[in-house]
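Translate structure to sequence.
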């Protein structure tokens, strides 16, 4: 029995050493041939035999062989289970825990008892966001944490700064998004907007609106009142 355990342990160590060696080879070859891959975050075996996953810039996924001779960009699909493994991996890497959101960089709008919670990343120049905001007006008993996320244009940043520096951020936001009433010029510390954009880039928020519900569910794009209510109900259960 002791001999069997020893052999097993040696086998595991041998496999681990081989994996480390292959990882080192992949890193070395890719760094020498592709300067943009000099700082790889992680090299791991993928679900497909012989294929290795390369992760860089936090959540950028590529695939290669054990020598780093070939590079594949695209989705790895499990045809038996009909699952997009690359998409699932990126979603896991970029997941946002609701309780970890930097709420100090958002302003809050409370309706009714405010028991249900929702966070939204929006650009003031986003047409889809304006449509979403009009539907959101019909939702009651909710606390909305609004993250200004100016990514569409320089004017988006200007509008966001004026709203963030307004005496009543929530009113200024809704005046503009729902009633097309512009916010007057204002100035204050707007570093929160820079942090919001950096946070969004880190977690691959590439469009607005992006919604985060209290159960950590992430929904990209504008949804209507009925869909908002359904997601809030799901988050509560």
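Result:
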């Amino acid at each position: 029995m002791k001999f069997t355990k020893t052999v097993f342990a040696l086998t595991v160590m041998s496999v681990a050493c081989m994996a480390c060696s292959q990882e080192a080879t992949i890193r070395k070859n890719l760094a020498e041939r592709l300067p943009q891959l000099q700082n790889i975050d992680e090299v791991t075996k993928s679900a497909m035999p012989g294929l290795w996953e390369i992760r860089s810039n936090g959540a950028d996924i590529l695939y290669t062989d054990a020598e780093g001779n070939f590079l594949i960009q695209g989705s790895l699909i499990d045809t038996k289970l009909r699952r997009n493994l690359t998409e699932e991996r990126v979603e896991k890497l970029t997941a946002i825990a609701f309780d970890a959101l930097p709420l100090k960089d958002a302003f809050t709008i409370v309706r009714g008892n405010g028991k249900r919670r929702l966070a939204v990343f929006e650009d003031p120049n986003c047409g889809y966001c304006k449509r979403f905001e009009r539907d959101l007006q019909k939702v009651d008993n909710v606390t909305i944490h609004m993250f200004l996320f100016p990514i569409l244009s320089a004017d988006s940043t200007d509008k966001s700064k004026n709203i963030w520096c307004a005496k009543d951020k929530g009113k200024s936001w809704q005046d503009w998004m729902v009633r097309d009433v512009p916010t007057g010029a204002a100035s204050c510390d707007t570093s929160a907007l820079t942090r919001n954009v950096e946070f969004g880039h880190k977690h691959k928020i590439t469009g607005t609106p992006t919604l985060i519900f209290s159960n950590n569910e992430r929904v990209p794009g504008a949804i209507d009142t009925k869909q908002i209510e359904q997601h809030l109900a799901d988050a509560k259960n």
